[in-house]
Amino acid sequence: MDRIRITGGVPLAGSITISGAKNAALPLMTCGLLTDDRLVLSNVAKLADLQTMAELLAQHGIAVEPEGRSLSLGGRITNTEAPYEIVCKMRASFLVLGSLLARCREARVSLPGGCDIGTRPVDLHLKGLEAMGAVIKLDAGYIDATAPTGLRGANIVFPFVSVGATENLLMAASLAEGTTVLKNAAREPEIADLAKCLIAMGAEITGIGTDTLTIEGKKTLHGADHAILPDRIETGTYACAAAITGGKIFLENARTDDLGAVISALTEAGIIITPARNGFWIERTGKLRGTDVKTEPYPGFPTDMQAQFMALMAVAEGASMITETIFENRFMHVPELNRMGARINAHASSAIIRGVHHLSGAQVMATDLRASVSLVLAGLAAKGQTTISRVYHLDRGYEAVEEKLAACGAKIERLS
Ligand code: EPZ
After folding, report:
1. Is the C-alpha dihedral spanning 12, 18, 19, 20 positive or negative?
2. Checking phi first, is residue 137 left (phi over 0); if not, alpha (psi -120 to 50) or beta?
């Protein structure tokens, strides 16, 4: 298994180009199931998770052909089963359920297991589809779903915000008969990007960017060309890399408008952010100040930035409190950061971080995608050498992470 070795202490300087968003690309690729026409997605990052989604779609009959930094999807659905072997590798595979049901009136999709950060049930996805007329059974770890007379529009109120359930039902509703209203829907920018692509395919959706989405179902959708929005989590991650090393970098293609809560927290911590054409500068000149954050659904502070911000706060002046409200077990980076000399105490959903003057390099282990990258950030700032094992977690969500950082002066290399 690959490892990454970092020799810390170099303030980053240079520019990093932000890739297309992983968490938009995954549902957008699923849209390939919604039409027999060609769907072309551009600004696609080269990520392991997107390769897994391509494998899944291929076994459904949808070919996914790379064309430079675009993907061209086409074909007809020949198989409505999503096998355990793929779904257990990547839970976003579960997003095919709504589309398969809407088009084929049947689907057999493996239940995704839990994962490192939580049990991650899919009850909201299933309840919403049942409200649309699906009959759902659990059989040998698979969801057996049928909609003999097709899906029909429904009024659905989510008891709490779920990105995946909003996406699954948004795609299903696009081909259901009649009107669907999704209340308390997730408002993440990736949802707006998905809705924009669906509209380009002929769907009729209003309320984009709000917590109420109204969808007028169509009989068919046609092909489209769609450019994927920049990855706001990758953007926030590299902003933290500049901050933790006391450097100054330009983030190309980065948008500030979908990172408001992160930018507020970074500014409070003493970071200077200067918007420019097609991106923004991020710089830290003085001390880092301890800053409290609580993760919340968009537009709140994103849970996917929690581990990265914690690494930053580990070397801030003073104490910080970080509260994780979305997932029940998303502090696996804490013991690893503490091995590097951080002083973090986690209790239930909160962690208190007492800033230290510096971290020290160590051998550490990646556990989940965002925990992995928080260890990279810590390694960039630590005195001495850090070696991170199990970096396959990192490759799921970050394209060419060591190249992008090395181009800004980081002493980072991959050891196969
Ligand atoms: C998406 O996961 C993202 N993944 C996650 O990013 C992100 O952390 C999460 O949204 C929250 O923003 C993708 O987009 C591929 P949820 P998702 O449904 O859709 C509970 C990363 O690092 N829940 O919004 O699975 C759930 O357990 C990944 O890029 C139910 O109880 O998240 C969680 O506690 C990690 N029942 C909370 O809701 C359901 O039916 C939010 O989950 C659905 C969710």
Report:
1. positive
2. beta
Asked whether 373 lines ligand 1 (CB < 6 A), one says no
User: In degrees, to the nearest 5, what angle opens at C-alpha 30 toward C-alphas 41 and 199?
Assistant: 65
Give bridge partners of residue 190 from the DSSP assignment.
none
Q: Where are the beta strands (DSSP E) in 258-362?
A: 272-276, 279-283, 293-294, 319-323, 343-347, 350-354
The minimum-distance atom of ligand 1 relative to the CA of 370 is: 22
C-alpha 166 to ligand 1 mean position (Å):
10
Q: Are 355 and 315 in contact (CB under 8 A)?
A: yes
115 is catalytic: yes
Q: Which residue has the tokens 């690494």?
A: 311
DSSP string, 353-380: EE--S--B--EEE--SHHHHHHHHHHHH
Within 10 Å of residue 119's Cβ, how many Cβ atoms?
Answer: 10
Contact 222, 34 (CB under 8 A): no
Six token digits for residue 206: 């209003």
Can you spell out the DSSP letters for 217-230? Answer: --S----EEEEPPB
∠319-323-328 over CA atoms, to 5°? 140
Ligand 1 in contact with 26 (CB < 6 A)? yes
Mutate to test the pocket of ligand 1, among 120, 191, 305 (most ligand atoms within 8 A of CB): 120
Cα separation of 290 and 272, whole Å?
A: 15
Would you say the CB of residue 301 lies under 6 angstroms from ligand 1? no
C-alpha of residue 120 to centroid of ligand 1, in Å: 7
Token pair 């970080």 in the structure block, residue: 322
Q: Residue 322 forms beta bridges with which residues?
A: 293, 351
In the sheet that holds 70-75, the strands lie side by side as 62-67, 70-75, 39-42, 224-227
pLDDT tens string, the chain, 416 residues long: the values are 899 999 999 999 999 999 999 999 999 999 999 999 999 999 999 999 999 999 999 999 999 999 999 999 999 999 999 999 999 999 999 999 999 999 999 999 999 876 778 878 899 999 999 999 999 999 999 999 999 999 999 999 999 999 999 999 999 999 999 999 999 999 999 999 999 999 999 999 999 999 999 999 999 999 999 999 999 999 999 999 999 999 999 999 999 999 999 999 999 999 999 999 999 999 998 999 999 999 999 999 999 999 999 999 999 999 999 999 999 989 999 999 999 999 999 999 999 999 999 999 999 999 899 999 999 999 999 999 999 999 999 999 999 999 999 999 999 999 98
